[in-house]
């Protein structure tokens, strides 16, 4: 029944928009994603990861290199649009402005050990992999479909300095803590699937005091963690409680917040040991 419903949705959206050039469905999330393209009047063409049954809900947006001869995307086939490479100068999401400040204070000739949870379309990882000095980057994503999307359509390539691990981020982090693995930077941009929860990002397992302690332990001295806290309804009280929990562990002076709205805050804390 789910497959029939998905096919009907795809047909509707494919008719409604010539810009959806590929679709990928996630059995884990029970959602289908569209790989779309648009051509803003001002700015480069873009590749967009969107949720098929909510076309205006953009999961990720990445700038593309302009086609040779500035050919309009409208004259290209789906295969040609999908073959356009991403611009390597894509900026890191404004969600992580405080983290950028932390990165700016690090030596530019030193490869940092970085860790991310929540791959999405891979825009954060793509940015980090194109820094002047590439980090040693490990990304953990629970949904293999997101890895497929990020590597097939959004420019991610695994190599000696970059790996994507399919698994539970909390489990991986706990194992890293016990093994003595330490990171300079951690980015948590994972969201849960509980449609009833006030706090959507991060999942419930990341809200515990246990996680806060593990995060502090797993960071190197001077290292930083940045987390996307997003919700709905009465989420703000949960967000503020979580921030106080981190401030208690890391120290109030070592934490900063960036407000993206009434129920969306990015928390960044530096570990001083």
From TrEMBL:
Does the keyword field hold Glycoprotein? no
| Species of provenance | Steinernema hermaphroditum
Q: Which domain of life is it from?
A: Eukaryota
Q: Which protein is depicted?
A: PABS domain-containing protein
Q: Which residues form the signal peptide?
A: 1-17
Ordered alphabetically, the record's keywords are: Signal
Signal as a keyword of this entry, yes or no, is yes
InterPro entries annotated for this entry? SAM-dependent_MTases_sf (IPR029063)
